[in-house]
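Record 1 of the preview.
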Amino acid sequence: MEPKEAVDSLQPEKWRDTPPEKKLELLIKVRKNLEEHMDDLGVVDAKMKNGLIGEDIFSVQESMIATAYPVGSTLSACVDVYEAIIDGKMPQPLEIKKVKDGLYDIEVFPIHQKDKVLYNDRKDYIRVKGEPKQINPVDQEGGIIAILGAGNYSSSIEMINALFLENCAVVHRPHHNNEETDKIWAKIMQPLVEYGALSFCDSHGGRELVKDPRLKMIYFTGSTDVAEKIMSTTETEFISECGGNNPCIVVPGLKPWTRKQMIHQTEQIATISKMNGGAVCGRIQTIVISKNWSQKAEFLKELRLAIEIETPAAGSYYPGTAEVIERFLEAHPEAEVIKPEGGKRKSSDFILIENVSEDSFAVKNEAFCQIMSVVELDTPEDAESFLPKAVEFCNTKLLGTLGSAILIDDHTMKVHREVLEQAVTDMEYGGIGVNTMPPMIWMNPYLTWGGNEEGKRFVSGFGNFGNAMNFQNVEKSIAYSHFMSPGHMINTNKGAFNNMGVHMAQYAVDPTWRKLASLTASVLTGKLRHKDF
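->
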């Protein structure tokens, strides 16, 4: 459909005035359609990525995690929201606590009993500026939002957010990478299309679409350069998520990490950094450690093993990756080219650059592929000395403000809780994972995802997506987990990981106790399986 036709087909006033009971009915229909078509999404998404690299490396199950799971989780969260609205009030957080004058942490997850079972060690917060204010979606003024979809993932959770949290009709334009999956999404979303709340336009129609004067807002996911070009052509409010160079701060422990802890953390980093061939906006790109950490050499050795031996090869499929790798290798001839699975996959080289300077090319640029660098800060190996310096480096040197992680063992966290919480407050990032990785924040519909760039140059974007409870003036999202959490995403057996992915998607669209039991069983049995690659 051409852009004008797509906008013409929408009925924003009808959607705005639709009673919550009808919207809940449509949510449940769409979620049921997703359950029926999630295999199709996985097949088409994997086919696209494997076709771009010319080898079968992406599995259908892995692609189901990338497509069905995030949207399914968002749909289910909105079902909970609308059930609460019909009962007479918005869903309420677990706690609101004052951080300091004008700054509050709102604990939003896990709230429901099944989530508490699945994420028993998580405490997730949104941090807001000013007195917390929650808006009922049905009281929003409505309008039309244009969504320019991402190229790396065909899982436009923004569609659900705009429709059910902003109360707006939506026109969705896919990235050309995802034209085929968008056809499946159109089938899944058909009840909303028929109702006049949603339309799909062709992938080539973006330039015309953003100039349509009927738009209230534009949601964009993609590169900073493209975002700036779009903003130069329109006066429409622009909400964007554009990536960056995301850090993982590794805090020296009061006690030495055990080898089990060392392996666990390095395998978690390797898994997330390889995910989707590195084409993940929230992936870890820069490891920040103390130069004087007594376990530095052991950590770097285990990190290399995790990348090369203990986690499977991933395919770098995203267009332009070869040119990015060439630029990084030219700027850093000292870089090590690691070949997972013995190099049998032609697209899976992983670039590790150790001990880069604080003003290096690797620090100032985003890779968006399987490249990782290590920065060593010359500080004492204690949290009180190291954490403030690490935060300062991330805020002032690294590119962007999207996502970040802090790894700190439970004992050190307990002793230095004030130091850690000050670091979280000072970090100028939209998402901060303490003992969890930034993509886990993106996957949680109760949190927000976006940059934190007030007063800074445009890199990671303005505004955010998510926020199922609809609190206003969110500065950042913060997720806390245990250091050795069983919920960490670690891929050391492809069969087990794929099986878990299927159960994750199935639970997302049908969050019952039976599906939760199946997911939990897949996670527990998967941990018993040995390497299969």
